[in-house]
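idk why but the lab printer keeps eating my pages so im just putting this in chat instead. protein + BIS(adenosine)-5'-pentaphosphate:
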Amino acid sequence: MRLILLGPPGVGKGTQAQFLMDRLQAVQVSTGDLLRAAVREGTALGKDAKRYMDAGELVPDDVILGLIGEKMTELKGRSVIFDGFPRTVAQAEGLDRLMDGLGQQIDRVLELTVEDQVVIDRLSSRRSCPQCGAVFNLISAPPKVENVCDVCGHVGLIQRDDDKPEVIANRLRVYHDQTAPVAGYYHDRGNLVQADGLGSVEEVRSRVDSALAI
Ligand code: AP5
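predcted complex ->
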């Protein structure tokens, strides 16, 4: 199974991917996570990518397609959930070429939808653990003990640099200009389904299951 999760920043792609990994026995491949790991490790790619990420702009397509190519080779045919990729029509076309070369295909594409104001509210209140990557939300999913990670016990949850108001606004602009057309690309190929991302995590999870018929 190869599933793509599409949708605006903060719609809940990463949150729903956590459930889907179990349901589909699949690996999550998040280009955002791969890029943040490269930034943390201080690689040349990470240093270059950080400029784009801090501004809420997209990292160039060739860099992203290179990362995905390496990851797919490493995963050797395992089931995959793509989270936050593809983000441009050029990336979707590149993924098609890569899949052809590997003798694989994209089975389903799920688009989660919400209004921009919901994105702004969710991202402004997101916090994450710098040690294990667990994601929380000060309003909808707070940690059990303030500022302490439920998963690994690390003290000191952080706000992502790109979850600042001015960067969120640009990420939304970039999403509408460059990423929204990707849904049309998959709609034309007949494998797009949609689910409303508004409501509790559990409500969205149940809609996702229905949309994917799993
Ligand atoms: P990336 O990390 O992919 O960011 P994003 O797509 O903007 O997605 P997010 O991780 O912000 O949100 P999400 O939809 O996963 O929501 P989450 O589940 O965390 O990309 C970051 C940057 O990297 C990009 O700006 C770009 O520079 C670069 N990049 C990455 N991929 C690229 C690519 N392919 N091409 C080019 N550049 C690329 O939820 C958000 C919050 O809401 C959390 O606090 C969560 O707890 C909460 N929440 C989730 N669901 C609900 C709910 N139902 N109700 C209430 N709260 C909820």
